[in-house]
Structure formats: structure tokens, C-alpha cells
Design brief:
It is a single chain. With 163 residues, the protein is α+β, with helices and mostly antiparallel strands. It has one domain: tt1808, chain A. The chain is 21% helix and 42% strand. It is built from three helices and twelve strands; from the N terminus they run E-E-H-E-E-E-E-E-H-E-E-E-E-E-H. The protein has a six-stranded mixed β-sheet.
Length: 163
Amino acid sequence: MSHSYEEIIKGVSVLRQVPDGRHHEICERLHGHIAGCLKPGSPARLLEARALVQISAGTMVRPDLALVTVATGRLLLAAEIVNSEDHRWDTVTKKQIYEEVNVPRLWMIDPRYDNVEVYHASTYGLALKGILAGKEILAEKLLPDFSLTIAELFNHPCPAQKD
């Protein structure tokens, strides 16, 4: 059963439904892998799924995954798992907000196509660095011990290689 949660986008309250099923499984899998690679004393901290993150005055979002600095609480990495029922919020509205505040990394995880769009902050906004799928590896220099194949993220076993 889904529950609702609130995000505030530029002073406007938006009520969203917590997706369940596959979306939830992907979120838990991603959190587990990232939590497993953060060492004690790390300068970054992983927040709970959909924890409230203040982006700017009047804007508070709940990314599916948020990695923040321990010292300042600044958002380093946001991951949004696209919900097919209201994908515009993640793929357009929230992406624009992350771009405006220059979030260093953004992952747009799309279960509709089993791919991940990886964005890095640049002088000109968020720059698409790649679209990963299948056996490609999601890695991040901000998390040196993190590495996950896209197939694993979406819980698709990789076929055994033939000798």
C-alpha cells in the first residue's frame, strides 16, 4: 500500500505517492550498495530514502537517495528513481531544481527502460555524462569503493560467459 509524502517546490506544496513494488526494491538495493561502501569517518553521509532535503529557501525535496556532506549537509549526490505515473516531477521539475543549485551529481534511474542517466555539474548546468544499461557499471569517484552493474541494480542476473 502506498503512502503519500510532501515536497515543497518553490514554495508550492506537492503531494506525491510513495511508489511500491519494483521502485521500492531498486531503491533498497541502491541504498544497500552505497551504505556498504561508506567507511567510518567518511566525509559523506547517506540519508534515509526520501529524507527531506532543503535545497534552497522554499524548496525541500525528497530524493530516493541523497548523499550529503557531513560537515555542511550539502547535497553531493541525488538519485531519483523515475515513477512512470508522475515522471515529469523527477525528469523535468526536480532535475531543473538540482541544476539550479549546482548539485555535483545526479542519477536518473529509469525502471521503464532499465537504464541510468548520469549527470555531473558543470559551468553550464547539469551535463549528461552517459546513459548506462545492461552490463555497464555505475561508479562514482565521490564513492571510490562503489561499483554496481546496471543489471544488478535492476535485479537482472548477468548471463554466464561462455568459455
